[in-house]
Design goal:
The protein has helices at 41-47, 72-86, 98-109, 132-146, 151-162, 169-181, 184-192, 223-231, 248-251, 253-270; strands at 7-8, 15-19, 26-30, 52-56, 92-96, 116-120, 210-215, 237-241. The protein is α/β, with parallel strands linked by helices. An eight-stranded mixed β-sheet has the order 1-2-4-3-5-6-7-8, sandwiched between helices. The longest helix is centred in the C-terminal third of the chain and has 18 residues, at 253-270. It is globular.
Length: 271
């Protein structure tokens, strides 16, 4: 299944890649901070035989137009605009990291549009902006840029810190390439967008099939936290990928695809 060249929505705001027949059910992938639509090419190709697989460039990334003000709420509104333009009833949304936060925020306004969601290596909350852990997290990611470093120079170290045991070399290379291509303004804005995010009280209201997917070596979205998160979502299933860090679809694509495939087959049978 050939993945399309990057495309744009009719209004020109969103760039995306796709594979599969447009008349098939939509399977939409949302990348994390430092990612890109092309980070999902392995999944677009794998699932394009039975879905119209689509991956966006988040606003400010790739060919997508930046938002005037960046927050999880404004990104969720942008997601709704994007989904409206690409069409496809009852899409399945796969959100990784900040992409999973955007999906959670989007569900608060659009609880019945999606057929199912996958919350991959994400969190229901970032916590108070003035917390010590939050300050340390932000400084670790933005401090070097503020002191004159570039994402091109930082990408190898940042990606190496994200992956787990024995990651796929080509996946790591793609992750580095994606991160190095992000503008520093967009990276800065998306990191700061995490501040104040908290959808813990909304987890109980997610009433569609949900897969919560973690990696046992993920330091950004620790597996114990994600396992607890899954217990608050009615009928959620939880999968932990052993030895995997924060970039499961790139570092262990076979394991990620197998977990997603099993979940999709479950909801296909139910439908």
């Amino acid at each position: 299944m050939a993945v399309s060249s990057p495309m744009k929505t009719k209004d020109g705001r969103f760039a995306y890649e796709a594979a599969g027949d447009p008349d098939l059910p939509a399977l939409v992938f949302l990348h994390g901070i430092g990612g890109a639509a092309r980070a999902w090419r392995g999944q677009l190709d794998t699932f394009g035989d039975r879905y119209c697989t689509i991956a966006w460039d988040m606003p400010g990334y790739g060919g997508s137009v930046p938002l005037a003000a960046v927050s999880i709420a404004t990104l969720a509104d942008a997601l709704q605009d994007f989904l409206h333009q690409i069409g496809g009833p009852k899409p399945v949304l796969v959100g990784h990291s900040i992409g999973g936060m955007i999906v959670q925020q989007w569900l608060t306004k659009n609880p019945r549009i999606a057929g199912a969601v996958v919350l991959a290596q994400t969190s229901p909350a970032f916590g108070k902006p003035d917390g010590d852990w939050q300050k340390s997290f932000i400084d670790a990611r933005l401090g070097p840029l503020d002191r004159g470093a570039t994402l091109v120079s930082l990408a190898p170290t940042l990606v190496n810190e994200l992956v787990g045991d024995d990651p796929d070399a080509s996946g790591v290379a793609l992750a580095r390439d994606c991160m190095a291509d992000v503008s520093e303004a967009s990276y800065h804005a998306s990191v700061l967008a995490l501040l104040g995010f908290d959808q813990r009280n909304a987890l109980k209201d997610i009433n569609i099939p949900t897969l919560v997917l973690s990696g046992s070596k993920d330091k950004n979205a620790p597996a114990p936290m994600m396992a607890k998160m899954a217990t608050y979502i009615p009928s959620a299933s939880y999968v932990e990928l052993e030895g995997v860090g924060h970039l499961a679809n790139l570092e262990r694509p076979r394991a990620f695809n197998a977990a997603l495939d099993q979940f999709l087959k479950t909801i296909e049978v139910a439908a």
